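Q: My hope is that you can spare some time for a protein that puzzles me. Underneath my words sits a plain record pairing an amino acid chain with its backbone structure tokens. Those tokens are not coordinates but codes from a learned vocabulary of shapes. Thank you; the sequence and its tokens follow:
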Amino acid sequence: MTLWAMAIAAAAQAQTTVALTGLKQDSSLPVEVESDTLSVDQGTGEAVFTGNVKVVQGDMTITSERARVEYTPGGNEVHKVFFYENVLFTSPTDAAEGDEAVYTLATGEVVMTGNVLLTQGTTTIAGPRLVYNLDAGTGVMEGRVQTVFVPGSGTP
């Protein structure tokens, strides 16, 4: 086995750090939400959006079948948004899809789980868990990682 093949095999079994500049986003921008239905529970401080959910923040769009919004204590601000089923994060240049995702607004961190596929131009990276920071534009694909890249494309 060549040194190059061994390096790829070792990286595939651990974690892969990726630059997500296309998904970089100012997490303080307003968040717009659309869905078929909305149910609010004042007792738990949660709102659930169901059916064709679309969330837009700046250049980033997130779609899923269902999203649950968790507010901070006191209900003044959104703390986290949980996305379920066919989750797709897109920007003008990058896309990430998975089964579920959690977006923590205060930190700008998104954790995607379940059959995660990240596409950056002609490069794809797949794994069970992607943790990325929208403000920094950096992320880590964790678990058994697989990647396909095109030599000479300028992307990792």
